[in-house]
Amino acid sequence: MLSSAARSCPDYHNYVGETYSVSGSYLYQPRYYRVRAGGDRSLSACPVRLLTDNGPGFVTAQPDFTFGLADMRGYQLKLEVISECDSVLLINTATEGWYYDDDDAGNGDARIILTRPADGRLDVWVGSYSGETCDAVLALETYRR
After folding, report:
1. Which residues, in sequence order, are CB contacts of 48 under 8 Å at separation 6+?
2. Average pLDDT estimate for 67-86
3. Phi-psi region for residue 75, left (φ > 0), alpha (ψ -120 to 50) or beta?
4. C-alpha triplet 128, 123, 50: angle, nearest 5°
5. Which residue, of 7, 78, 89, 112, is most buried by count of CB atoms within 10 Å of its CB?
């Protein structure tokens, strides 16, 4: 039986988000994905070990997006949210590293830059800081290292 903390966590094991297959060269031009930011899962109640910032936020149980990354060698990957609310960004990489951000993009929006993204599955949750929902866009773009 799962603890209440584990049940409150985002879960990539049994869920897949809206799915896209992308490559480093394809993302060399920014790509935009519409999403409804927010959710009912409190990150504060979740024991996920984050490799970056820690902070509050609310996301859905399932990822908003699941990207199949290919040919990422030699690229950095920037994930950025443009939203109508204070957004948070949570990702789980192909190496099962969890990353979180709240306001690095400025204006209450989130940004994560992976300096050495691995090929494979990348799950992305676009959430909100205080639990509200709002329209948002997730932007992905690569840069040469």
Report:
1. 9, 10, 98
2. 98
3. beta
4. 65
5. 89
